[in-house]
Amino acid sequence: QVHLVESGGGLVQPGGSLRLSCEASGTISTFNYMSWYRQSSGKQRDLVADIGSDDSTNYADDLKGRFTVSRDNAKNTVYLQMRDLKPEDTAVYYCKLIRDGDPREYWGQGTQVTVSS
Known about the structure:
The protein has 117 residues and is an all-beta fold.
């Protein structure tokens, strides 16, 4: 089993920064693919960024340059550094893990990010 816990969300003013963390526990290895998604009220859950076990990254086109995904395999943790936050970045942010050779998706419970003055 895999358990994911996100943290780091909160209220931030426009133009501010936040760093989200997602710590994985359970039966995992470094050979996994981790992603960040976000879901605003009344909207679908969209991909923000993902990172492979080789540290290759992929971003939603409109977030490139403001968001940076990284991972620390020793801590089984993936991070999302968010800069120059805008009100439209307000959402619940979720992390997802896919283990190598396992088709199942594992999701965290989400962390709320609110960008408001």
